What we know:
Elements: H1 3-20, H2 22-30, H3 35-55, H4 67-85, H5 87-91, H6 98-109, H7 125-140, H8 142-146, H9 157-165, H10 178-200, H11 213-225, H12 242-255, H13 259-266, H14 270-274, H15 277-299, H16 310-325, H17 340-352, H18 365-383, E1 392-393, E2 396-397, H19 400-424, E3 433-438, E4 441-446, H20 449-460, H21 481-495, H22 499-504
Antiparallel strand pairs: 1-2, 3-4
Amino acid sequence: MNYKKxxxxxxxxxxxEGVLMMAPLAxxxxxxxxxxxxxxxxxPILSLVIIGFLLQISKxxxxxxxxxxxxxxxxxxWIIMTLxxxxxFVINRDIPNYVDACFEIMSGFSTxxxxxxxxxxxxxxxxxxxxxxxxxxxxxxILVFVLIFIPESNEGSSMHLLRAESPGxxxxxxxxxxxxxxxxxxxxxxxxxxxxxxxxxxDTPIPGYENDQLFFSFLTAFGCAGTGGFGFLPGSMxxxxxxxxxxxxxxxxxxxxxxxxxxxxxxxxxxxxFKSRELKTxxxxxxxxxxxxxxxxxxxxxxxxxxxxTEEAFRHSLFQVSSVMTTTGxxxxxxxxxxxxxxxxxxxxxxVGGMAGSTAGGIKxxxxxxxxxxxxxxxRKLINPRYVPKTxxxxxxxxxxxxxxxxxxxxxxxxxxxAVIFLLSFDPxxxxxxxxxxxxxTYTVKHGFFSNFSSALACISNVGPGFEAVGPYASxxxxxxxxxxxxxxxxxxxxxxxxxxxxxxxxxxxKKI
Length: 513
């Protein structure tokens, strides 16, 4: 285990987090917040920078990081970032409980969007900015950014870090050099974010918030880019004009795509872009889900409280499908009160998620395709033992190891999901009722099995809001401390796709061979 190299990279990460915290500190000065709110960021910034530089004093003899070290470091980085990232909320008393603050910032960095804040109106502007900015930081991955500054080694240290943090079953370079790859990815990410901010600024301001249009545009773009979903107004995105809601829906779908495909567009390889099987499947799922939900909402096949015009039904269908499919969690209406068919589609989309190589969570469309292909191949082999499998994906033959890895991931995903549901069942909140006030009216929901199921699913898939007692107009504030700690690790497991966290806590990782 190359401990000096681990400490060196960890120190770089801490310094970078301190530098990134200067953005919400600047917001605190712009809005002339109290000294306490400024100190809430100054203290963590100084702590991170000092500790970070101290960790970099001892230079490693070798820059090599092997796979287990890369995976363990990735999980360690996310824990350290969460522990320090939670401090501003505690110091400025916006979220006085440290466990709640860790839940909130882990939800931010992991781009989950689940919140323990019951009244968003009382949160300071600097805290609102830090919450949403954490989505943008965690969306592409902080280690992907740091790879720009890490020297490449012959042993592939940078690739191990990229594989540990990047979502999807297959991760690789889009050009020969890793540094160039990461720069391209971040430039595309930054470019799309800036473009969305500019388009959102074209809309008319929200009544009552005329002076906040630029601020809200930044927060919205951060949430869409990272597919995070922290709301910063009552009702999430409900108060925004239809124009902005359509813009968000389109950009959510764009950020749910594999960023490597955008590189193909930039270099003019249109044929390769449109040949992507995963891209076609991704848009097909979005199209079918929007169509079925739209028909369900306007068809009145089941009695429900909302009354939509045809345009509203289409807009809410498109927005919620794009939000849930990309595991963002923004809402424009209370889908918790939708017909059963519509809710079931959203529930299934939580499992699927976006494309590999995007900022979205979930199992990923590519894994879904590979699993079906793997099952089909196994059935063919059972029917004809002499059948020689030739399973292809994106024009390439899939190795049996890749298919087995996909099945292993889905098995682990489902096992952890069941385990988390079981642990949540011990929470005293079970059996209690709560009143929900939304655009669908006022109604009462009971916290039961489906609330726990959707909580666990929403956290491991990094969606955010679930159903029933953790629906779009509710929060996770009612859970006990133990449940919140369980969900904190569940969000991290989902964002890092399980293995880095398991490797970090495996005793064999730290044993000398």
